[in-house]
Amino acid sequence: MLSWLVPLCTVGGAVAGWLCAPLASSYFERPIRATRPGIAVTTAVAFGALAWRFSGRADLPAYLYLAVVGALLAFIDVAVKRLPDPFTLPSYLVGLALLSGAALLGGHPMRLAHALTGLAALWALYALQHFFAPGAIGWGDVKLSGLLGLYLGWLGAQAWWLGTLAGFGLGGLYAAGALITRRASRKSEIPFGPFMLAGALVGILAG
Question: N vs C: which end of the chain shows fewer Cβ within 10 Å?
Answer without folding.
Answer: N
